Model the fold of this input.
Amino acid sequence: MWSIAEVCEQTGLSPRTVRYYEEIGLLPGVRRSEGGRRVYGADELERLGFISRLKALGLSLAEIGELNAVYAIGGSTGAMLARLHDLLGVHLADVDRRMGELADLRSELVAYREHVEERVAESAPSDEMRDRDASHV
Done:
C-alpha cells in the first residue's frame, strides 16, 4: 500500500490530479487508512498508468470514463478493449487528418518563404543604390 505522495512520485501525477480522477470515478474504490488517509494498491497504480497512457494517446477523460463504464457494465476486458479499439481508430483518423493539414501548411510556408526570398533578392540592389545615393548627399 502506498500513500498519495508515493503514488504521485511513481506516476508523475499531482495529488490534485489523483484526487480528481477518484472524484470523477476513474479511480473507484480507493481505500482509506484508519486515520482516513487515502491508500493505494497495485490495482490503483496500474489504473493510473493506464489512464496516463490513454491521455497521452489523445483520449479525453470522458472517453476514459466511458471505457470504465463499459468494463463495469460488461465486467469484461474484451468489451472494454473492443471499445478502446474503436476509440483509437477515431483518434488515429483525426491524427492522419491533422498531419495532412500540417503538410499542406508546410507547403504553403515553403512557397511563401520562397516568394519572400525572391522579393528580398529583387529589392536588394535598389536598397544598396538608395543607401549609396543617401551617403553622397
Remarks:
- The two ends are 85 Å apart (CA to CA).
